[in-house]
């Protein structure tokens, strides 16, 4: 059991901390309002669309883990939003939802009643370990993209 607790802690750190990379919180800190929906040349999406995509995908992964009846959004159409100008409330709600969903998943991951290696009774053999790594990998990839977009918009440190 001790090894499993170590693995759960490492997974939580991968999801919650930057380790070798900037954290999501670092990447989204102080993004200027005027740059939220700008799309840099030759790129397909804005910071708003990218951050909303993180929210939607993370929510989908978490719901898949917890709810055997969960229906994922249609790929790719429902994983990406139109580039409309979000209100400050929408922007803040999205950021807060990403954090809250992540924290809820970390509690789920820490619960020893939720098996790391046993495949879910639904899906195609996925297990909690795989889904935790998927959240970490997906969010780290897009967090890096947020930083690149911010650099292209001259909105990074």
TrEMBL record:
Enumerate the Pfam families for this protein. Answer: DinB_2 (PF12867)
Instruction: Name the source's superkingdom.
Output: Bacteria
User: Secretion signal: which residues?
Assistant: none
Q: Which InterPro entries match?
A: DinB-like (IPR024775), DinB/YfiT-like (IPR034660)
Q: Where is the DinB-like domain?
A: 21-146
Q: What is this protein called?
A: DinB family protein
The organism is Hufsiella arboris
């Amino acid at each position: 059991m001790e090894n499993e607790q170590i693995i759960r802690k490492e997974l939580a750190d991968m999801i919650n901390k930057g380790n070798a990379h900037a954290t999501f919180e670092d990447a989204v800190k102080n993004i200027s309002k005027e740059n939220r929906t700008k799309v840099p040349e030759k790129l397909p999406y804005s910071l708003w669309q990218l951050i909303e995509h993180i929210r939607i995908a993370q929510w989908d992964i978490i719901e898949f883990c917890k709810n055997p009846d969960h229906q994922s959004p249609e790929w790719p159409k429902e994983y990406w939003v139109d580039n409309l100008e979000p209100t400050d409330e929408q922007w803040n709600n999205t950021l807060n939802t990403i954090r809250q969903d992540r924290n809820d998943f970390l509690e789920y991951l820490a619960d020893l009643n939720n098996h790391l290696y046993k495949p879910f009774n639904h899906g195609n053999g996925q297990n909690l370990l795989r889904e935790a790594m998927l959240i970490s990998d997906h969010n780290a990839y897009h967090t890096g993209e947020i930083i690149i977009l911010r650099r292209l918009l001259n909105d990074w440190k």
